[in-house]
Amino acid sequence: xxxxxxxxxxxxxxxxxxxxxxxxxxxxxxxxxxxxxxxxxxxxxxxxxxxxxxxxxxxxxxxxxxxxxxxxxxxxxxxxxxxxxxxxxxxxxxxxxxxxxxxxxxxxxxxxxxxxxxxxxxxxxxxxxxxxxxxxxxxxxxxxxxxxxxxxxxxxxxxxxxxxxxxxxxxxxxxxxxxxxxxxxxxxxxxxxxxxxxxxxxxxxxxxxxxxxxxxxxxxxxxxxxxxxxxxxxxxxxxxxxxxxxxxxxxxxxxxxxxxxxxxxxxxxxxxxxxxxxxxxxxxxxxxxxxxxxxxxxxxxxxxxxxxxxxxxxxxxxxxxxxxxxxxxxxxxxxxxxxxxxxxxxxxxxxxxxxxxxxxxxxxxxxxxxxxxxxxxxxxxxxxxxxx
Length: 388
What we know:
This protein is of the alpha+beta class.
């Protein structure tokens, strides 16, 4: 009888054991499945930095002043200065061209003779006037100006002034046979040679003023507010680098903003001035550190210092929000204020604390509270940005 009951209980016992085993297997499978669907997310630790805003712009160096130099008198060229060649630098006041003075020296001599004659006649007129005054001393009050030789004396004085003016004109024309560099200049074009006959007013060369250079720097509208203080003061300094030789670095000063916006790019036009680009004042323009007209330069306009900001990769910013990983390894969105965008980074402020973890890789559809497996990123945004 006992054996019968025991055999009858075997199926029941087996059913209970199978049920327990199945329940245990399902529980383990659920835990394993949950662990399996926890996504791995890389992060980096956030730390506030101070970021110096630098607005970069590029432009072509051009002469501050350009002159078409012309001869003021006509004549045959008999001398050209050795440095009066295209591409060379000449100092201010250098006689770069001489015309044959033969046609201008005789007028000087003739004018000098006329002046001497006029002065002699003036002295004679003065003596005659003195004699007349002596002869008419008893009736000076009633004597006519003609009797006192007043008009004759005035005419003689006028002839002296006229002769003197003619002499000055003759000397001026003679001096103008020497064509002088009006400023320290780079010769851009040369239109004359020895033996050539030129007319008065004919252009002999095109000069670039080498004492100053300017560069027009297009600045985007969104960058303009960051250099507003720089553009207030003419003494503001701008760092300029030659893109063809980055060892050549000079300091420019802010000159102003052109009174129009470039139509094609919709950018403001900032003007910077570089003193002595050819370094003529230091080594006569032969230095390797000189900046040549036509060079393409990179300018750095200093903006404000953004203090206690966080550098965030742009692709991690979504509608002014970033994703952080909290202490429970859960995703949490945080709204931030964007202060500045530069290349691949944005600089933000917000309710962020140093040491918080910024999620750099995210699930396809991140939500607040999503559990993740946090793994520290090898590459740091802060080290890549170069901020302190």
